[in-house]
Amino acid sequence: MGKPRIIYMDHAATTYTHPEVVNAMLPYYTEHFGNPSSIYTIARNSKKVIEAARVQVAKALGGDAEEIYFTSGGSESDNWAIKGVAFANRKRGNHIITTKIEHHAVLHTCQFLEKEGFRITYLPVDQYGLVDPAELEKAITDQTILISIMYANNEIGTIEPIAELGAIARKHKVYFHTDAVQAIGNVPIDVKVQNIDLLSLSAHKFYGPKGVGALYIKKGVQIENLIHGGGQEHKRRAGTENIAGIVGLGKAIERATADIVGHSVKIKALRDRLLKGVIEKIPDIRINGHPERRLPGNFNVSFEFIEGESMLLWLDDAGICGSTGSACTSGSLEPSHVMLAIGLPPEVAHGSLRLTLGDANTEQDIDTVLEVLPKVVSRLRDMSPLYQKAVKNGEYNV
Ligand SMILES: *Cc1c(COP(=O)(O)O)cnc(C)c1O
Fold this sequence. Notes:
Layout: E1 7-8, H1 19-25, H2 27-30, H3 41-61, E2 68-71, H4 74-88, E3 95-99, H5 104-115, E4 119-123, H6 133-139, E5 144-148, H7 162-171, E6 175-179, E7 198-202, E8 213-217, H8 232-235, H9 243-258, H10 260-281, E9 285-287, E10 298-303, H11 308-317, E11 320-321, H12 337-341, H13 346-350, E12 352-356, H14 363-382, H15 385-392
The structure holds pyridoxal-5'-phosphate (PLP).
């Protein structure tokens, strides 16, 4: 028997780069490689394509091209937004509000700022992962300078009420940043309508290349630079531009936002087929995340009494790529902070499986997973003394 076909279901971790995007990028490595800061013709061309990509990103977000700054990806954009606003507005206050379920690019940046004398409020979320707008409003003080709340969660897929949260920030004259890395191409975004002052995005989450992203900074926002050096990006972000990457980002965001509804209907149908099959075939499961307000491709389910990482290894054997909120092999016994924040007991968090669907997936893929996964779960449960005991005690009726 040959190797199984790879069934890639980890699109929240990264996507493949679409061939159209790769083709758009290639000439900027070999032919139009001029440094945009130089004055000869090929350099001027590099400058032109960067500005064209800026327009493509602005269009996708509803902002102006001058409000788009290219970065090395989602992590840099998050760092810049949060540290940049914190340091530039220190005299106005030292309080920042975020949530317990942010990506580490936000959480660890906030933890760094705590050491620098800032006070951070980490808002809780409900059992579905939703932030309560009333809780946000209550947390705002006259010292609050920034609110940073993710658009959609990378683990459980929950989509936050961004327009409502943005309106509260605006009402209290506090800057509002959103990490929209998972949202691009999945939900429509309009920075003006949604009162967003700063927005992070990353190309490799929507079929663009890795190592390139952008930060939207609304005109007039007071923000310090993060990367010092040359005068690139309107003197706000130094470093010779990643021209090919920027061209790829522009092309990828144009593709990803051309038909958001069509794309999400298709992906959601696959996800729902998967979820329905799993509910039918596997007992004693818990669905994580919000039933409706969630990313179309996100499937996150806990299988009690088994280890997420053992599940992943068995799935990998069948060519299926997924991820888990368990982190035993990484040396820490702590399950993911998102799983704990939605109130899962550690043993349930450890048994979680995240499959994130995307353009690479077909109905055939879903059916293969529905054949393999029930076998994997029952084999692991057969090996689990805790599960056996629970069944014997009548806590479960398999
Ligand atoms: C992937 C991801 C990031 C980090 O983006 P990189 O481009 O990999 O640095 C930040 N936030 C969220 C929500 C993500 O999913």
